[in-house]
Design goal:
229 residues, four-stranded antiparallel sheet, 4 helices, 23% strand, extended
């Protein structure tokens, strides 16, 4: 019986790895139904049986690289699958219709892949009829499916693994910089009163610097105090 080769580490889009290492790695081709799971079995291009055990909630994307327990790399490819490709009707609609379609699909919590000029969802004849009633063009195609994770999803917010090294606080507080006051320029038209500069002492003459008296100790009222209270 062939033992499973465990893979418990994921490197999104192979970041940090030399390209030649990724190109030489074996590969597995998985559809979206499998890649959205954190635990699954697969067979790579070298015929090895893999047991993938990733942290709960991890989503595997096409282009990611798994690291096996023996240190070998396994490149993940997104398998083409049946999806509905949704575009705005060039004759009766406008590009804004695509935004409306994404809004209505999002209200139904449908996994959506967002592209600048089209949307993709898994086949659903009810949703297809709804979209066509909105004058959208809906066709079934076979393509890789990479839906959005959501703003707080694991593996980054987008389906393409792009990350930013800083967080955006509300109102971009993290990027706010206090404006520095411009220095005031005193010219011949300045209306401010300017104190006369202090006279410089003659060379070699010492200046007495007044010493500020130490604050008096607080008065304590006791039984022998002669004050009226």
């Amino acid at each position: 019986m062939t033992s499973l080769l465990h893979c418990s580490k994921l490197m999104p889009q192979g970041r940090g790895l030399a390209r030649v290492l990724v190109q030489r790695a074996s590969s597995i081709t998985l559809d979206w139904d499998t890649r959205q799971k954190s635990r699954f079995d697969a067979t790579d291009s070298a015929g090895r049986q893999l047991g993938v055990f990733l942290p709960r909630g991890t989503v595997v994307r096409g282009g990611d690289v798994l690291v096996a327990e023996d240190g070998s790399l396994v490149r993940v490819q997104a398998a083409p699958q049946a999806v509905l490709r949704i575009t705005a009707c060039a004759e009766h609609g406008s590009p804004f219709d695509l935004t409306r379609a994404a809004y209505h699909l999002g209200n139904r919590h449908v996994p959506i892949e967002l592209k600048p000029d089209h949307l993709k969802i898994e086949p659903d004849h009810v949703l297809a009829d709804m979209l066509r009633a909105m004058h959208m063009t809906v066709v079934q195609v076979s393509e890789p499916f990479e839906p959005e994770n959501g703003a707080y999803g694991d593996h980054g917010a987008s389906a393409h693994g792009h990350g930013h090294g800083h967080s955006h606080e509300q109102g971009h507080a993290g990027h706010a910089h206090a404006a520095q006051a411009e220095p005031h320029v005193h010219g011949p038209d300045c209306q401010h009163e300017h104190p006369a500069p202090a006279a410089k002492p003659p060379a070699g003459k010492r200046i007495a610097i007044p010493v500020r008296a130490a604050p008096a100790a607080p008065h304590v009222h006791g039984p022998g105090c002669g004050h009226e209270h």
